[in-house]
Amino acid sequence: MLSREEAAGRVMVALDYPGAASAEALVRSLEGIPCYMKVGMQLFYAAGPGFVTELKARGYKVFLDLKMHDIPNTVKGGANSIAKLGVDMFNVHAAGGTAMMKAAMEGVEAALAAEPGLRRPLVIAVTQLTSTSQAVLNDEIGIDGSVADAVVRYARLAREAGLGGVVASPQEVRLIKEACGPSFRTITPGIRPAGADIGDQSRIMTPREALAQGTDYMVIGRPITAAPSPREALETIIEELM
Ligand SMILES: O=C(O)c1cc(=O)[nH]c(=O)n1[C@@H]1O[C@H](COP(=O)(O)O)[C@@H](O)[C@H]1O
Question: What ipTM is given for this predicted complex?
Answer without folding.
Answer: 0.99
